[in-house]
Amino acid sequence: MKNNLALAGKSIVITGGTGVIGDSFIKSVCNAGASVGILGRNGKVAAQRASEIVKMGGIAIPLIADVTSEAQLIAARDKMLQAFGKIDGLVNAAGGNIPEAVIQPDQDIFKLNMAAIQEAMNLNLFGSILPTQVFGEAIKNNGRGSIVNISSVTAHLAVTKVLGYSLGKAAIDCYTQWFAVELAKRFGDKIRMNSIVPGFVLTEQNRTLLTNKDGSLTERGHLIINKTPFNRFGTAQELEGALVWLLSDESQFVTGSKITVDGGFSVYSGV
């Protein structure tokens, strides 16, 4: 495998490792020389991806867990430590929209599906906080490490329909800044937390909102492209550079920061 050594000798846990973006993250971290724990609920996919990494000369193991289950996360952490002896980094990539939480234009906004919105908040916010609590303890014991959260441009602009998702990601921004400060006060530059703010990347979760069955853009898809100066969606691979940099010692003086990778979406007024 290609190895630029930026993460050589490090052991990294990636939650959401069975998703589209998670797959790209796994490969980029392995290409940078790290050993990877692929954490997700789909054991078959996690095992398949770990096997593919090993066949290409990398080191990876599947970690089966729901990011909202402390017991499952603890078991995954113990497996990671048994395999590699330490944990140097955590990528909180698990998250996404909940279909039942999508708010349509003709829907009464005073009769929201509160259970679905709470589920979206639970997944996107506490699905990052809880893994940080569990795996962060091992990072603390290691004495050094980096934690990377995944935010979204929907945290910074009012993007229609996805209220629950947006609330969760806005809370991630607050959490990232708050926790980064507390880490710095306790551990100096030894343990850092930052986030990546992706623009619109096609995944299985948002594909039906942005594209039709024939692959053409929906009205919403067209609106997003028109608001993106690069005039296209991003790719998961275009997040890799920011991720590897934040996990590596090359970003040692960076904490509490948001690295935006959105093709200009968040800075363009539309005019």
From TrEMBL:
Pfam families: adh_short_C2 (PF13561). Coiled coil: none annotated. The lineage of its organism: Bacteria, Pseudomonadati, Bacteroidota, Flavobacteriia, Flavobacteriales. Keywords: Oxidoreductase. It comes from Flavobacterium kayseriense. It comes from the Bacteria. The keyword Transmembrane helix does not apply. The keyword Manganese does not apply. This is SDR family oxidoreductase. Belongs to the short-chain dehydrogenases/reductases (SDR) family.
